[in-house]
């Protein structure tokens, strides 16, 4: 079994009864905690029009987290590039890299990170997304290059900076693109597990080396809920289950505290849908997490596992990431 890194995906989750200010302070607290545990990176994801997620101004929040930490890499998981001008993103991340040299990642996705109506408000054109996204990536690479110094349009800050790009995806389309461009690939297994195995195979089979990357590099994002006992972890995971029920019901309300019995909340069909979407979710005590990590890595052989955690109690969330660190170290 190949050794792998562990990292964090944070959605800046807004909890019932808590303010967004509390949310951002919890995110910073988590970043400091996992930095001390030697997690590799801390990524934030762009979402819009959701009461439960406060990371819409992703670049701003990355700056806040990077300023409050010392060594952990901080970045986007991801910036939904067709929502933005390539030049603006180059300038924003050029600014971040200039402020925090050697610590900024730029993960890029093509999805809207929201509903259709909000996507329209963001100025997206669905008819051109598949063409626009690869072109925008090329534009970013150009803006970051030293050679662009002679161009009429330049990214200042940004030009000449080494800001690694990552392709994010939840389907095989992204795997083909990441392999063609020779960029590292992060898959959203925490909410779209169906095509993950096929996407990894495509990426590895078709990968072309690039200036940034000589060999394929795969990040798998999964959900994680760890506790001292299996029973406690299962109860804590009901916050995650409720969040996915809310997605099915198109209800964007803040994350709810855990409950004793999910059967009082979901229907049998909803339960089946949620558990299918959460196929790659690690829940349990340290021993159980060790077994789940080992089985996952033996199957997928990833370079990095990025853990997303919907845990209502902040201290329990910190403890969960500590248990994952211990579990990972025990199987390495």
Automatic annotation (TrEMBL):
One of its GO terms (molecular function) is monooxygenase activity. Keywords: Monooxygenase, Oxidoreductase. SUPFAM superfamilies: Bacterial luciferase-like. This is Luciferase-like monooxygenase. To bacterial alkanal monooxygenase alpha and beta chains. One of its GO terms (cellular component) is cytosol. Coiled coil: none annotated. The lineage of its organism: Bacteria, Pseudomonadati, Bacteroidota, Flavobacteriia, Flavobacteriales. PANTHER family: LUCIFERASE-LIKE MONOOXYGENASE. Residues 20-245 form the Luciferase-like domain. It comes from the Bacteria. It holds the Pfam family Bac_luciferase. The keyword Oxidoreductase applies. It comes from Chryseobacterium potabilaquae.
